[in-house]
Amino acid sequence: MSIVKILKCKNNECKAWVREEFATPGQTCPMCSGPMLRTMKHLPPLVKKVKSTSR
Ligand SMILES: [Zn+2]
After folding, report:
1. Could you name the domain of life of the organism this protein comes from (predicted)?
2. Residue 23 Cα, ligand 1 centroid: separation in angstroms?
3. What is the pTM of this model?
């Protein structure tokens, strides 16, 4: 597992979150338009299958 910085909705009833790298300045919740909180999340590492085989 790897730790990823995310922005999480402050509303406990709302499960929305976005990766910080995809967030915009002043990011608001995509679901309830509420304020978001910077936090961390444990996520499985991204598996990159893209392996460019150059010929
Ligand atoms: Zn929300």
Report:
1. Bacteria
2. 14
3. 0.73
Q: What percent of the chain has pLDDT over 70?
A: 96
Taking the CB of residue 20, how many other CB atoms lie within 10 A of it? 16
CA–CA gap between residue 40 and residue 55 (Å, rounded): 40
Tokens 């790298």: give the residue. 21
How far apart are the CA of 49 and the centre of ligand 1, in A?
32
In the numeric block, which tokens belong to residue 13? 């009833």
The count of other CB atoms within 10 Å of the CB of residue 40 is: 11
User: Which candidate, 19, 13, 4, 49, places its Cα nearest to that of 34?
Assistant: 13
Centre of ligand 1 to C-alpha 22, Å, is 16
Q: Give the pLDDT score at 10.
A: 97
